[in-house]
Amino acid sequence: MPIEVVPEWMANLEDEDVSFIKRFLLASGSLKEMASQYKVTYPTVRLRLDRLIQKIQIGESTGNDPHIALVKRLAVQDKLDFETAKILIGEYKKTKEVKK
């Protein structure tokens, strides 16, 4: 049965992330097996899983605000440090409240 409506948390993931989830499920959630498949260490797979979890949580916690989602995504991808992300989001929220 094909999925007609893709959950929003999944629609925001990259193809590589979806592939990782599929392999993770097929490996019965074994990070040791995933490390073997990807030919990397266990901590590397654990870090990748943690970042994927963060991406999903970000998608759910930002609601419909694309600006906040972008800043959080950049922080998860290490393109922006978390402290700077917090400052940017805080300032953005302040400007939105002033406009109300």
Write a concise keyword list for the protein shown above.
single chain; 100 residues; mainly alpha; 6 helices
Textual characterization of the structure:
This protein is mainly alpha-helical and 100 residues long. It folds into two domains: 7-61; 64-100, no CATH class. Helices cover 73% and strands 0% of the residues. The protein has six helices and no strands. It has helices spanning 8-11, 15-26, 31-38, 42-61, 66-76, 82-99. The radius of gyration is 16 Å and the shape is flat. The model has no long low-confidence stretch (mean pLDDT 84).
Low-confidence segments: none
How helix-rich are the residues, as a percent range?
over 70%
Number of helices: 6
User: End-to-end span in angstroms?
Assistant: 45 Å
Order of helices and strands: HHHHHH
Main sheet summary: none
- Mean pLDDT equals 84
| Total number of beta strands | 0
* Overall SS class: mainly alpha
Return Rg in Å: 16 Å
Overall number of structural domains:
2
Task: Estimate what percentage of residues fall within beta strands.
Answer: under 5%
- Shape type: flat
What's the layout of helices and strands?
Layout: H1 8-11, H2 15-26, H3 31-38, H4 42-61, H5 66-76, H6 82-99
Helix pairs in contact: 3-4, 4-5, 5-6
